[in-house]
Amino acid sequence: MARPPRAGLLALCLLAMVALWTALTGFSHTAPDLDGMEELVWATSLELGYTKHPPLPSWFMHFATQVFGRPVWLPFLMGQLFSALGLWFVWKLGREITTPRRALMATLLVSVTAYFSMRGTIYNHNTAQLWSIAAAIWLFYRALRDQHRRDWIWLGIVSGLAMLTKYSAVILFAAFFLYLLRSGAWRARRTWQGLAWAGLAFVLVVSPHLWWLAQHQFQPLRYADASLQTSGRLAALGTLLAFTLDQLGRLSPMLAVLGVWALWRRRQGDRAPGYAANDAWFAAQSARSASFWADLSPETRQFLLWVGLAPLISTLLVSALLGSRLEASWGSTFFVLFGFYALRGLRGDEGVQLRRILILAAAMHLALALGYAAGRGPLAHWAGHASRSTYPGPALSELALQHWRQHQPGRPLRVVAANTWLGGNIAVHAGPATQVYIDADDAQSPWFAPGSALDCGALVAFSRQGRAAPAAAVQALYDAAPWKGVDTVQWSGPKGVAIDFHWAVLPATPHCLKPAQGQ
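Below the sequence we write its predicted C-alpha coordinates.
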Protein backbone atom coordinates (compact mmCIF):
# COMPACT_ATOMS: atom_id res chain seq x y z
CA MET A 1 0.00 0.00 0.00
CA ALA A 2 1.30 3.47 -0.92
CA ARG A 3 2.34 5.74 1.90
CA PRO A 4 -0.32 8.35 2.82
CA PRO A 5 0.35 11.91 1.61
CA ARG A 6 2.19 14.09 4.06
CA ALA A 7 2.53 17.82 4.61
CA GLY A 8 5.23 18.08 1.95
CA LEU A 9 2.81 17.23 -0.86
CA LEU A 10 0.29 19.83 0.30
CA ALA A 11 3.05 22.43 0.70
CA LEU A 12 4.19 21.72 -2.86
CA CYS A 13 0.63 22.11 -4.16
CA LEU A 14 0.13 25.38 -2.29
CA LEU A 15 3.48 26.74 -3.45
CA ALA A 16 2.57 25.93 -7.05
CA MET A 17 -0.82 27.66 -6.61
CA VAL A 18 0.75 30.82 -5.18
CA ALA A 19 3.42 30.94 -7.90
CA LEU A 20 0.95 30.31 -10.74
CA TRP A 21 -1.60 32.95 -9.77
CA THR A 22 0.96 35.57 -8.69
CA ALA A 23 3.08 35.22 -11.82
CA LEU A 24 0.21 35.33 -14.30
CA THR A 25 -1.67 38.21 -12.69
CA GLY A 26 1.53 40.15 -12.03
CA PHE A 27 2.56 39.78 -15.67
CA SER A 28 -0.84 40.61 -17.18
CA HIS A 29 -2.05 43.44 -14.89
CA THR A 30 -0.80 47.03 -14.95
CA ALA A 31 -2.56 47.80 -11.66
CA PRO A 32 -3.97 45.80 -8.77
CA ASP A 33 -7.65 45.78 -7.87
CA LEU A 34 -9.11 48.64 -5.83
CA ASP A 35 -8.85 46.80 -2.50
CA GLY A 36 -5.25 45.82 -3.17
CA MET A 37 -4.35 49.42 -3.98
CA GLU A 38 -6.11 50.56 -0.82
CA GLU A 39 -3.97 48.20 1.25
CA LEU A 40 -0.79 49.46 -0.43
CA VAL A 41 -1.78 53.02 0.50
CA TRP A 42 -2.80 52.17 4.07
CA ALA A 43 0.42 50.23 4.58
CA THR A 44 2.28 53.54 4.76
CA SER A 45 2.13 53.39 8.56
CA LEU A 46 1.16 51.04 11.35
CA GLU A 47 -2.08 52.27 12.92
CA LEU A 48 -4.34 50.67 15.51
CA GLY A 49 -7.25 51.16 13.12
CA TYR A 50 -8.31 52.79 9.89
CA THR A 51 -11.48 54.68 8.99
CA LYS A 52 -13.05 51.70 7.20
CA HIS A 53 -11.59 48.56 8.76
CA PRO A 54 -9.53 47.10 11.61
CA PRO A 55 -5.78 47.13 11.07
CA LEU A 56 -4.29 43.63 10.74
CA PRO A 57 -4.24 43.22 6.92
CA SER A 58 -2.60 46.63 6.53
CA TRP A 59 0.04 45.64 9.08
CA PHE A 60 0.87 42.55 7.06
CA MET A 61 1.09 44.66 3.91
CA HIS A 62 3.28 47.19 5.71
CA PHE A 63 5.86 44.55 6.58
CA ALA A 64 5.68 43.16 3.04
CA THR A 65 6.41 46.59 1.57
CA GLN A 66 9.45 46.90 3.83
CA VAL A 67 10.83 43.84 2.06
CA PHE A 68 9.57 44.20 -1.52
CA GLY A 69 8.69 47.87 -1.92
CA ARG A 70 5.34 48.62 -3.57
CA PRO A 71 5.27 46.72 -6.88
CA VAL A 72 1.93 46.13 -8.59
CA TRP A 73 2.23 42.36 -8.08
CA LEU A 74 2.60 42.52 -4.30
CA PRO A 75 -1.17 42.49 -3.51
CA PHE A 76 -1.54 39.43 -5.77
CA LEU A 77 1.20 37.62 -3.85
CA MET A 78 -0.21 38.62 -0.48
CA GLY A 79 -3.72 37.49 -1.40
CA GLN A 80 -2.48 34.13 -2.57
CA LEU A 81 -0.28 33.64 0.48
CA PHE A 82 -3.26 34.10 2.78
CA SER A 83 -5.37 31.84 0.58
CA ALA A 84 -2.69 29.16 0.85
CA LEU A 85 -2.44 29.59 4.62
CA GLY A 86 -6.21 29.22 4.90
CA LEU A 87 -6.05 25.99 2.91
CA TRP A 88 -3.29 24.74 5.21
CA PHE A 89 -5.60 25.03 8.20
CA VAL A 90 -8.45 23.40 6.27
CA TRP A 91 -6.09 20.47 5.77
CA LYS A 92 -5.11 20.53 9.45
CA LEU A 93 -8.77 20.12 10.37
CA GLY A 94 -9.12 17.35 7.80
CA ARG A 95 -6.24 15.45 9.36
CA GLU A 96 -8.15 15.53 12.67
CA ILE A 97 -11.40 14.11 11.31
CA THR A 98 -10.54 11.77 8.43
CA THR A 99 -7.71 10.00 6.62
CA PRO A 100 -4.75 11.95 5.18
CA ARG A 101 -5.83 11.24 1.58
CA ARG A 102 -9.40 12.37 2.15
CA ALA A 103 -8.21 15.48 3.98
CA LEU A 104 -6.05 16.39 1.00
CA MET A 105 -8.90 15.74 -1.43
CA ALA A 106 -11.22 18.06 0.50
CA THR A 107 -8.51 20.75 0.58
CA LEU A 108 -7.80 20.47 -3.14
CA LEU A 109 -11.48 20.66 -3.98
CA VAL A 110 -12.16 23.82 -1.99
CA SER A 111 -8.96 25.39 -3.36
CA VAL A 112 -10.50 25.77 -6.84
CA THR A 113 -13.47 27.80 -5.59
CA ALA A 114 -13.24 31.45 -6.57
CA TYR A 115 -12.38 32.67 -3.07
CA PHE A 116 -9.14 30.69 -2.97
CA SER A 117 -8.26 31.01 -6.67
CA MET A 118 -9.40 34.01 -8.74
CA ARG A 119 -10.48 36.17 -5.84
CA GLY A 120 -7.52 34.87 -3.89
CA THR A 121 -5.45 37.36 -5.91
CA ILE A 122 -7.45 40.23 -4.35
CA TYR A 123 -5.75 41.20 -1.12
CA ASN A 124 -8.48 42.66 1.03
CA HIS A 125 -9.90 42.06 4.48
CA ASN A 126 -12.01 39.15 3.24
CA THR A 127 -9.08 37.24 1.74
CA ALA A 128 -6.79 38.14 4.63
CA GLN A 129 -9.34 36.62 7.02
CA LEU A 130 -9.39 33.17 5.38
CA TRP A 131 -6.51 31.82 7.42
CA SER A 132 -7.80 32.97 10.81
CA ILE A 133 -11.32 31.68 10.14
CA ALA A 134 -10.01 28.26 9.08
CA ALA A 135 -7.55 28.17 11.99
CA ALA A 136 -10.26 29.16 14.50
CA ILE A 137 -12.52 26.33 13.29
CA TRP A 138 -9.66 23.85 13.63
CA LEU A 139 -8.80 25.07 17.13
CA PHE A 140 -12.46 25.09 18.20
CA TYR A 141 -12.77 21.46 17.13
CA ARG A 142 -9.61 20.49 19.02
CA ALA A 143 -10.55 22.48 22.10
CA LEU A 144 -13.96 20.84 22.39
CA ARG A 145 -12.63 17.36 21.73
CA ASP A 146 -9.54 17.39 23.93
CA GLN A 147 -10.36 20.20 26.41
CA HIS A 148 -6.72 21.28 26.56
CA ARG A 149 -6.13 24.75 27.95
CA ARG A 150 -3.57 25.62 25.28
CA ASP A 151 -6.10 24.98 22.50
CA TRP A 152 -8.63 27.28 24.15
CA ILE A 153 -6.03 30.02 24.60
CA TRP A 154 -4.90 29.72 20.99
CA LEU A 155 -8.55 29.79 19.93
CA GLY A 156 -8.94 33.11 21.76
CA ILE A 157 -5.77 34.52 20.20
CA VAL A 158 -6.67 33.49 16.64
CA SER A 159 -10.26 34.66 17.09
CA GLY A 160 -8.92 38.02 18.21
CA LEU A 161 -6.75 38.20 15.10
CA ALA A 162 -9.78 37.33 12.99
CA MET A 163 -11.65 40.23 14.60
CA LEU A 164 -8.69 42.55 13.97
CA THR A 165 -8.96 41.56 10.32
CA LYS A 166 -12.69 42.13 9.84
CA TYR A 167 -15.59 42.45 12.24
CA SER A 168 -17.55 39.83 10.28
CA ALA A 169 -15.68 37.28 12.42
CA VAL A 170 -18.64 37.57 14.82
CA ILE A 171 -20.64 35.51 12.32
CA LEU A 172 -18.32 32.56 12.93
CA PHE A 173 -18.50 33.11 16.67
CA ALA A 174 -22.29 32.89 16.41
CA ALA A 175 -21.87 29.57 14.58
CA PHE A 176 -19.67 28.33 17.43
CA PHE A 177 -22.36 29.35 19.91
CA LEU A 178 -25.07 27.53 17.98
CA TYR A 179 -22.96 24.39 17.82
CA LEU A 180 -22.32 24.51 21.56
CA LEU A 181 -26.08 24.55 22.10
CA ARG A 182 -26.82 21.86 19.50
CA SER A 183 -24.11 19.46 20.68
CA GLY A 184 -24.76 19.95 24.38
CA ALA A 185 -21.11 20.82 24.97
CA TRP A 186 -22.19 23.97 26.83
CA ARG A 187 -23.30 21.79 29.75
CA ALA A 188 -19.74 20.68 30.53
CA ARG A 189 -17.89 22.62 33.21
CA ARG A 190 -14.59 22.18 31.36
CA THR A 191 -16.11 23.88 28.32
CA TRP A 192 -16.97 26.96 30.37
CA GLN A 193 -13.48 27.01 31.84
CA GLY A 194 -12.02 26.78 28.34
CA LEU A 195 -14.27 29.55 27.08
CA ALA A 196 -13.09 31.73 29.94
CA TRP A 197 -9.45 31.24 28.90
CA ALA A 198 -10.35 31.87 25.26
CA GLY A 199 -12.29 34.99 26.18
CA LEU A 200 -9.41 36.38 28.21
CA ALA A 201 -6.95 35.81 25.36
CA PHE A 202 -9.40 37.36 22.90
CA VAL A 203 -9.84 40.52 24.97
CA LEU A 204 -6.08 40.94 25.38
CA VAL A 205 -5.58 40.73 21.61
CA VAL A 206 -8.32 43.17 20.62
CA SER A 207 -8.06 45.65 23.53
CA PRO A 208 -5.64 48.09 21.79
CA HIS A 209 -8.02 48.34 18.85
CA LEU A 210 -10.99 48.79 21.18
CA TRP A 211 -9.17 51.72 22.76
CA TRP A 212 -8.52 53.16 19.28
CA LEU A 213 -12.19 52.76 18.36
CA ALA A 214 -13.25 54.76 21.40
CA GLN A 215 -10.75 57.48 20.53
CA HIS A 216 -11.97 57.72 16.91
CA GLN A 217 -15.74 57.73 17.32
CA PHE A 218 -16.03 54.09 16.19
CA GLN A 219 -15.47 55.08 12.56
CA PRO A 220 -15.10 51.54 11.11
CA LEU A 221 -18.31 50.42 12.83
CA ARG A 222 -20.18 53.38 11.37
CA TYR A 223 -18.75 52.55 7.96
CA ALA A 224 -19.88 48.92 8.34
CA ASP A 225 -23.37 50.06 9.34
CA ALA A 226 -23.60 52.35 6.33
CA SER A 227 -22.49 49.51 4.05
CA LEU A 228 -25.49 47.43 5.12
CA GLN A 229 -28.07 50.07 4.25
CA THR A 230 -30.32 49.69 1.19
CA SER A 231 -32.93 51.88 -0.46
CA GLY A 232 -35.78 49.65 0.66
CA ARG A 233 -37.07 46.12 1.22
CA LEU A 234 -37.34 45.36 -2.50
CA ALA A 235 -33.75 46.45 -3.11
CA ALA A 236 -32.61 44.29 -0.18
CA LEU A 237 -34.34 41.22 -1.64
CA GLY A 238 -32.66 41.96 -4.95
CA THR A 239 -29.23 42.01 -3.36
CA LEU A 240 -30.11 38.81 -1.49
CA LEU A 241 -30.90 37.02 -4.75
CA ALA A 242 -27.80 38.41 -6.46
CA PHE A 243 -25.67 37.37 -3.47
CA THR A 244 -26.98 33.79 -3.62
CA LEU A 245 -26.45 33.47 -7.36
CA ASP A 246 -22.95 34.92 -7.08
CA GLN A 247 -22.03 32.36 -4.42
CA LEU A 248 -23.19 29.53 -6.69
CA GLY A 249 -21.04 30.93 -9.47
CA ARG A 250 -18.02 31.16 -7.21
CA LEU A 251 -18.50 27.56 -6.08
CA SER A 252 -18.95 26.34 -9.66
CA PRO A 253 -15.28 25.42 -10.31
CA MET A 254 -15.47 22.87 -7.48
CA LEU A 255 -18.77 21.55 -8.83
CA ALA A 256 -17.21 21.24 -12.28
CA VAL A 257 -14.28 19.25 -10.90
CA LEU A 258 -16.67 16.93 -9.10
CA GLY A 259 -18.69 16.48 -12.29
CA VAL A 260 -15.63 15.53 -14.35
CA TRP A 261 -14.47 13.21 -11.54
CA ALA A 262 -17.86 11.45 -11.55
CA LEU A 263 -17.66 10.95 -15.32
CA TRP A 264 -14.09 9.70 -15.03
CA ARG A 265 -15.04 7.18 -12.35
CA ARG A 266 -18.12 6.03 -14.27
CA ARG A 267 -15.98 5.20 -17.29
CA GLN A 268 -12.97 3.68 -15.52
CA GLY A 269 -14.28 2.67 -12.11
CA ASP A 270 -11.65 2.58 -9.39
CA ARG A 271 -9.01 0.84 -11.42
CA ALA A 272 -5.56 2.24 -10.97
CA PRO A 273 -3.12 1.96 -13.89
CA GLY A 274 -2.26 -1.70 -14.45
CA TYR A 275 -5.64 -3.21 -13.49
CA ALA A 276 -7.36 -5.28 -16.12
CA ALA A 277 -10.27 -3.51 -17.79
CA ASN A 278 -12.58 -6.52 -17.27
CA ASP A 279 -11.95 -6.92 -13.58
CA ALA A 280 -15.62 -7.50 -12.69
CA TRP A 281 -14.93 -8.23 -9.05
CA PHE A 282 -13.10 -4.91 -8.60
CA ALA A 283 -15.94 -3.06 -10.30
CA ALA A 284 -18.51 -4.72 -8.04
CA GLN A 285 -16.53 -3.79 -4.94
CA SER A 286 -16.34 -0.19 -6.14
CA ALA A 287 -20.07 0.00 -6.71
CA ARG A 288 -20.79 -1.13 -3.15
CA SER A 289 -18.28 1.19 -1.46
CA ALA A 290 -19.63 3.79 0.91
CA SER A 291 -19.04 7.50 0.43
CA PHE A 292 -16.17 9.06 2.32
CA TRP A 293 -18.69 11.29 4.11
CA ALA A 294 -20.51 8.26 5.50
CA ASP A 295 -17.28 7.08 7.13
CA LEU A 296 -17.10 10.22 9.26
CA SER A 297 -18.41 9.92 12.79
CA PRO A 298 -21.89 11.37 13.45
CA GLU A 299 -20.36 13.94 15.79
CA THR A 300 -17.93 15.06 13.11
CA ARG A 301 -20.66 15.38 10.49
CA GLN A 302 -22.70 17.43 12.94
CA PHE A 303 -19.74 19.72 13.60
CA LEU A 304 -19.04 20.26 9.89
CA LEU A 305 -22.66 20.99 9.07
CA TRP A 306 -23.40 23.37 11.93
CA VAL A 307 -20.14 25.29 11.91
CA GLY A 308 -19.80 25.22 8.13
CA LEU A 309 -23.35 26.14 7.10
CA ALA A 310 -24.44 28.44 9.95
CA PRO A 311 -22.50 31.53 8.72
CA LEU A 312 -24.11 31.41 5.26
CA ILE A 313 -27.61 30.51 6.42
CA SER A 314 -27.65 33.02 9.29
CA THR A 315 -26.42 35.81 7.01
CA LEU A 316 -29.17 35.09 4.48
CA LEU A 317 -31.83 34.94 7.20
CA VAL A 318 -30.71 38.15 8.90
CA SER A 319 -30.56 39.97 5.57
CA ALA A 320 -34.06 38.78 4.65
CA LEU A 321 -35.50 39.76 8.04
CA LEU A 322 -33.79 43.14 8.42
CA GLY A 323 -33.63 44.11 4.77
CA SER A 324 -29.88 44.70 4.92
CA ARG A 325 -27.62 44.90 1.89
CA LEU A 326 -25.24 42.08 0.90
CA GLU A 327 -22.17 42.10 -1.31
CA ALA A 328 -20.96 38.89 -2.92
CA SER A 329 -17.42 39.26 -1.54
CA TRP A 330 -18.76 39.22 2.02
CA GLY A 331 -19.24 35.48 1.60
CA SER A 332 -15.50 34.88 1.18
CA THR A 333 -15.06 32.95 4.44
CA PHE A 334 -18.38 31.11 4.42
CA PHE A 335 -17.21 28.15 2.34
CA VAL A 336 -13.96 26.98 3.91
CA LEU A 337 -15.53 23.64 4.92
CA PHE A 338 -17.33 22.95 1.65
CA GLY A 339 -14.57 20.65 0.42
CA PHE A 340 -15.58 18.24 3.18
CA TYR A 341 -19.18 18.27 1.95
CA ALA A 342 -17.85 17.00 -1.38
CA LEU A 343 -16.82 13.83 0.43
CA ARG A 344 -20.50 12.88 0.30
CA GLY A 345 -20.08 12.09 -3.39
CA LEU A 346 -16.54 10.67 -3.29
CA ARG A 347 -15.99 6.95 -2.82
CA GLY A 348 -13.78 4.11 -3.92
CA ASP A 349 -10.07 3.50 -3.62
CA GLU A 350 -8.51 6.49 -1.84
CA GLY A 351 -5.25 6.43 -3.73
CA VAL A 352 -6.97 6.37 -7.12
CA GLN A 353 -9.42 9.13 -6.24
CA LEU A 354 -6.70 11.34 -4.78
CA ARG A 355 -4.67 11.11 -7.99
CA ARG A 356 -7.73 12.04 -10.02
CA ILE A 357 -8.71 14.95 -7.79
CA LEU A 358 -5.12 16.20 -7.81
CA ILE A 359 -5.00 16.14 -11.62
CA LEU A 360 -8.40 17.78 -11.99
CA ALA A 361 -7.71 20.48 -9.39
CA ALA A 362 -4.36 21.33 -11.00
CA ALA A 363 -6.00 21.51 -14.43
CA MET A 364 -8.76 23.75 -13.08
CA HIS A 365 -6.28 26.12 -11.43
CA LEU A 366 -4.25 26.32 -14.63
CA ALA A 367 -7.32 26.97 -16.78
CA LEU A 368 -8.71 29.58 -14.39
CA ALA A 369 -5.39 31.38 -13.97
CA LEU A 370 -4.67 31.50 -17.70
CA GLY A 371 -8.20 32.62 -18.53
CA TYR A 372 -8.25 35.24 -15.76
CA ALA A 373 -4.86 36.66 -16.72
CA ALA A 374 -5.65 36.76 -20.44
CA GLY A 375 -9.18 38.09 -19.99
CA ARG A 376 -8.23 40.90 -17.64
CA GLY A 377 -4.92 41.65 -19.32
CA PRO A 378 -4.18 41.46 -23.06
CA LEU A 379 -7.73 40.63 -24.17
CA ALA A 380 -9.21 43.49 -22.14
CA HIS A 381 -6.58 45.84 -23.57
CA TRP A 382 -7.22 44.64 -27.13
CA ALA A 383 -10.97 45.08 -26.73
CA GLY A 384 -10.60 48.50 -25.14
CA HIS A 385 -12.33 47.36 -21.95
CA ALA A 386 -11.63 49.82 -19.15
CA SER A 387 -10.94 47.45 -16.26
CA ARG A 388 -8.78 48.23 -13.25
CA SER A 389 -6.33 45.57 -14.39
CA THR A 390 -5.47 47.67 -17.46
CA TYR A 391 -5.43 51.05 -15.74
CA PRO A 392 -2.51 53.18 -17.02
CA GLY A 393 -0.97 53.79 -13.62
CA PRO A 394 2.64 54.00 -14.89
CA ALA A 395 1.72 56.57 -17.56
CA LEU A 396 -0.27 58.70 -15.13
CA SER A 397 2.53 58.61 -12.59
CA GLU A 398 5.08 59.66 -15.17
CA LEU A 399 2.90 62.61 -16.21
CA ALA A 400 2.44 63.62 -12.59
CA LEU A 401 6.20 63.55 -11.99
CA GLN A 402 6.84 65.62 -15.12
CA HIS A 403 4.50 68.36 -13.95
CA TRP A 404 5.91 68.26 -10.44
CA ARG A 405 9.53 68.54 -11.62
CA GLN A 406 8.61 71.37 -13.94
CA HIS A 407 7.11 73.50 -11.17
CA GLN A 408 9.05 72.23 -8.13
CA PRO A 409 12.52 71.43 -9.52
CA GLY A 410 14.87 69.75 -7.09
CA ARG A 411 12.14 68.99 -4.57
CA PRO A 412 11.02 65.33 -4.21
CA LEU A 413 7.34 64.54 -4.59
CA ARG A 414 6.19 63.48 -1.15
CA VAL A 415 2.43 63.95 -1.23
CA VAL A 416 -0.33 63.18 -3.71
CA ALA A 417 -3.72 64.60 -2.73
CA ALA A 418 -6.25 62.39 -4.48
CA ASN A 419 -8.63 59.50 -3.96
CA THR A 420 -7.13 56.17 -2.96
CA TRP A 421 -7.23 54.66 -6.44
CA LEU A 422 -5.71 57.45 -8.54
CA GLY A 423 -3.39 58.63 -5.79
CA GLY A 424 -2.20 55.10 -5.14
CA ASN A 425 -1.47 54.48 -8.82
CA ILE A 426 0.66 57.62 -8.91
CA ALA A 427 2.40 57.01 -5.59
CA VAL A 428 3.44 53.37 -6.06
CA HIS A 429 5.23 54.26 -9.31
CA ALA A 430 6.62 57.59 -8.09
CA GLY A 431 8.76 56.05 -5.37
CA PRO A 432 8.69 54.67 -1.83
CA ALA A 433 8.67 58.13 -0.19
CA THR A 434 5.50 59.31 -1.96
CA GLN A 435 2.37 59.07 0.18
CA VAL A 436 -1.31 59.60 -0.58
CA TYR A 437 -3.26 62.30 1.20
CA ILE A 438 -6.60 60.51 0.78
CA ASP A 439 -9.31 62.95 -0.31
CA ALA A 440 -7.22 65.67 1.39
CA ASP A 441 -8.59 64.39 4.70
CA ASP A 442 -6.45 64.07 7.84
CA ALA A 443 -8.74 61.41 9.33
CA GLN A 444 -8.25 59.13 6.33
CA SER A 445 -4.50 59.77 6.21
CA PRO A 446 -3.14 59.20 9.73
CA TRP A 447 0.42 58.82 8.42
CA PHE A 448 0.53 62.65 8.32
CA ALA A 449 0.57 64.69 11.50
CA PRO A 450 -2.66 66.72 11.53
CA GLY A 451 -2.35 69.83 9.39
CA SER A 452 1.13 68.97 8.07
CA ALA A 453 0.42 67.04 4.85
CA LEU A 454 0.77 70.05 2.54
CA ASP A 455 3.73 71.73 4.24
CA CYS A 456 6.25 70.74 1.57
CA GLY A 457 3.86 71.01 -1.35
CA ALA A 458 1.72 68.40 -3.02
CA LEU A 459 0.49 67.17 -6.35
CA VAL A 460 -3.30 67.29 -6.57
CA ALA A 461 -4.97 64.84 -8.94
CA PHE A 462 -8.43 63.66 -9.91
CA SER A 463 -10.32 62.22 -12.84
CA ARG A 464 -14.05 62.01 -13.42
CA GLN A 465 -13.56 58.98 -15.65
CA GLY A 466 -14.30 55.73 -13.84
CA ARG A 467 -14.93 57.29 -10.43
CA ALA A 468 -17.25 59.83 -8.83
CA ALA A 469 -16.48 63.54 -8.70
CA PRO A 470 -13.46 64.50 -6.59
CA ALA A 471 -13.89 65.10 -2.89
CA ALA A 472 -14.73 68.70 -2.07
CA ALA A 473 -11.39 69.20 -0.32
CA VAL A 474 -9.46 67.94 -3.36
CA GLN A 475 -11.45 70.18 -5.68
CA ALA A 476 -10.76 73.16 -3.42
CA LEU A 477 -7.01 72.48 -3.49
CA TYR A 478 -7.12 72.18 -7.26
CA ASP A 479 -8.97 75.45 -7.64
CA ALA A 480 -6.50 77.27 -5.36
CA ALA A 481 -3.33 75.84 -6.95
CA PRO A 482 -1.08 78.25 -8.93
CA TRP A 483 -0.24 75.60 -11.54
CA LYS A 484 -2.83 73.27 -12.96
CA GLY A 485 -3.99 71.59 -16.14
CA VAL A 486 -5.72 68.62 -17.74
CA ASP A 487 -4.06 65.80 -19.69
CA THR A 488 -5.66 62.99 -21.64
CA VAL A 489 -4.45 59.42 -21.20
CA GLN A 490 -5.89 56.40 -22.99
CA TRP A 491 -7.22 53.61 -20.81
CA SER A 492 -6.88 50.15 -22.43
CA GLY A 493 -5.34 51.36 -25.65
CA PRO A 494 -6.78 53.19 -28.66
CA LYS A 495 -10.17 51.49 -28.35
CA GLY A 496 -10.51 52.38 -24.68
CA VAL A 497 -11.82 55.47 -22.95
CA ALA A 498 -9.86 58.67 -22.41
CA ILE A 499 -8.98 59.58 -18.84
CA ASP A 500 -9.31 63.28 -18.01
CA PHE A 501 -6.27 63.62 -15.78
CA HIS A 502 -6.65 66.83 -13.78
CA TRP A 503 -3.40 67.79 -12.11
CA ALA A 504 -2.27 70.70 -9.97
CA VAL A 505 0.91 71.54 -8.10
CA LEU A 506 0.87 73.19 -4.69
CA PRO A 507 4.12 74.92 -3.64
CA ALA A 508 5.85 74.31 -0.34
CA THR A 509 4.93 76.52 2.60
CA PRO A 510 7.30 78.21 5.05
CA HIS A 511 6.58 75.35 7.45
CA CYS A 512 8.60 73.06 5.18
CA LEU A 513 11.75 74.65 6.57
CA LYS A 514 10.91 73.18 9.95
CA PRO A 515 11.58 69.52 10.83
CA ALA A 516 9.29 67.32 8.77
CA GLN A 517 6.17 66.21 10.59
CA GLY A 518 4.75 62.88 9.58
CA GLN A 519 6.60 62.89 6.25
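The two ends are 64 Å apart (CA to CA).
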